[in-house]
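Researcher: Quick test of sequence recovery. Tokens follow.
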């Protein structure tokens, strides 16, 4: 199995391809998986148990709360509120929800969690553990 870090990087590249191809719904959907994988990597590093399958394994709100993070403000909060695996069955975003706002929120969250991963990871490396 690939690491959550590697999968997050792959999905992020796919988000970029879909964004450039003007396929915002697919980009938003995959952006959720970038955030999910980064959250799971953070939880792994902190030795916090989390669901690995089923709907709870993809529940961003639940994973975010498991990490001990408060609800993010702005675009990040909008993303957390609107992202769901049910997007895979949709042909458009909910009315009144802007794809650019959601993509910004997904990028903000993914970047914020990546920073937390680096902070935790650097503590682990200092203790003789590897980053992966």
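Model:
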């Amino acid at each position: 199995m690939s690491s959550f870090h590697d999968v997050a990087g792959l999905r992020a590249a796919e988000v970029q391809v879909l964004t450039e191809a003007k396929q915002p719904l697919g980009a938003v959907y995959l952006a959720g998986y970038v955030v999910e994988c980064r959250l799971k990597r953070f939880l792994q590093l902190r030795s916090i148990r989390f669901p690995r399958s089923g709907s709870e394994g993809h529940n961003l709100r639940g994973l975010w709360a498991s990490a001990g993070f408060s609800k993010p403000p702005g675009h990040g909060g909008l993303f957390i509120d609107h992202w769901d695996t049910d997007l895979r069955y949709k042909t458009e975003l909910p009315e009144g929800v802007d794809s650019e706002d959601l993509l910004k929120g997904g990028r903000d969250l993914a970047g914020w969690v990546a920073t937390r991963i680096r902070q935790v990871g650097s503590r682990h490396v200092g203790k003789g553990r590897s980053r992966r």
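Helices lie at 4-20, 24-45, 60-66, 74-82, 99-126.
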